[in-house]
Every structure is written in C-alpha cells, then in structure tokens.
Design brief:
heterodimer, A: 112 residues, mainly beta, six-stranded mixed beta sheet, five-stranded antiparallel beta sheet, 11 strands, B: 113 residues, 51% strand, globular
Chain lengths: 112, 113
C-alpha cells in the first residue's frame, strides 16, 4: 500500500459545479495535511493546510480531515476553468516530520 | 519578496559530466528539500536538510549528493549523471514548527543524454 494515495483522474467537472478530490494515507501518527495545486510545467503551490478533524474553509476551497478513517479531501466550489490543474496531497511523516510524502496527484479538468 | 530560486532552469548534459543545481531561499527556513518529478510517479524526495550541516536521505537518494553549508543554500550535485536521472527537479523550503508548509522553486528540467 502506498503511503499517500490519490485517484490519478482525470476528473472532469462542469464549470460552476463542486469538484471533490480525495486522498488516503497510511501513517496513523500524521498530524498535518496539505493540498498543493500544480499547473502543467509549473511548481506546486500550497493552497490548503489542515491539522484537526473536520472542515477548514478558505474562499472556494474546503479541506476535510478524518483521522479515524485516514482520509483528507479537498472540495472546490463554483469550479472555474482556472482550477484545471493537478492537485497533490502531502503528508509529513510522523517519525520524521522533515520527510514529506506526496500522493501522485489528481488531474482536474473543468469543462465549460 | 519571499522566494525560492533554482538555477539553471533547463539543462541538457551528457552521461558522466558532473553538474550542480543551485537552490537558494530568502525566508530563513531551516528545512529544505530536493524532489524529482516523473510522469506517473509524482514527487519523490531525494534529500532533505533540517539545518546547516544536517542532511538526510529521502526516498530516491542514489546518484545524488547535497550539501548545506549555509542556511539559505542547498545545492544538488550529480557526480556522474545517467539518463535515468532525466527528470524535473524541484527545490523546496519548509516552514518550521508544526506547520511544515513547503514553498517550491520554479523547477529545473534536466536531460541527460
């Protein structure tokens, strides 16, 4: 089992709809969780971080964390064409917080 | 402006010719990392550094070296590059404390012939 798993997609969502991206992780001791957005040919950019169970909202983005089930998700409301990108889930290792494991990413495509 | 810089951005070289990719950050972060990104394999950590003179291996360290003589700089060294090291490389600088939020450089696209 991979340490951080994401559905590779592509996930196609109509403009204006909600895009839902999921990530599962294996290290039960992990305390912090991150979502990065990466446009093609560009570097990853941090868009959300979450540390506690529940929801965290920032503009059109909502991160959801469930430590008992070991999953973290990202919801994007009112999806825009500019949201088309690859979304990476990242989880620092519990034993070594400097070692950060990335999922392979979910490619999201917003169709007009 | 807070940033991570990498040089060069693009490099084509030949097998066995030593090269160095530089990375510099101006955020006074203690933690820095190097990643490579390959299609279908995502971002894989090569090496990371927790402070000056403190480095450790990531998931794919073979064929790479790093050094951390100053807090702001974290160069990646390929002593004898091989074609399987053709990849997109990212340097990242990480906030300390519990956050571990990473800021990435613009990337270096390396081709080894």
């Amino acid at each position: 089992q991979k340490e951080v798993e994401q559905n590779s997609g592509p996930l196609s969502v109509p403009e204006g709809a909600i895009a839902s991206l999921n990530c599962t992780y294996s290290d039960r001791g992990s305390q912090s969780f991150f979502w990065y957005r990466q446009y093609s040919g560009k570097s990853p950019e941090l868009i959300m971080s979450i540390y506690s169970n529940g929801d965290k909202e920032d503009g059109r983005f909502t991160a959801q964390l469930n430590k008992a089930s070991q999953y973290v998700s990202l919801l994007i409301r009112d999806s825009q064409p500019s949201d088309s990108a690859t979304y990476l889930c990242a989880v620092p290792g519990y034993s070594s917080a400097s070692k950060i494991i990335f999922g392979s990413g979910t490619r999201l495509s917003i169709r007009p | 402006e807070a940033q991570v810089t990498q040089n060069p951005r693009y490099l084509i070289t030949v097998t066995g010719k030593k090269l160095t990719v530089t990375c510099s950050q101006n955020m006074n972060h203690e933690y820095m990392s190097w990643y490579r990104q390959d299609p279908g394999l995502g971002l894989r950590q090569i090496y990371y550094s927790m402070n000056v003179e403190v480095t450790d291996k990531g998931d794919v360290p073979e064929g790479y070296k790093v050094s951390r003589k100053e807090k702001r700089n974290f160069p990646l060294i390929l002593e004898s590059p091989s074609p399987n090291q053709t990849s997109l490389y990212f340097c990242a600088s990480t906030t300390s404390g519990g956050a571990r939020e990473q800021f990435f450089g613009p990337g270096t696209r390396l081709t080894v012939l």
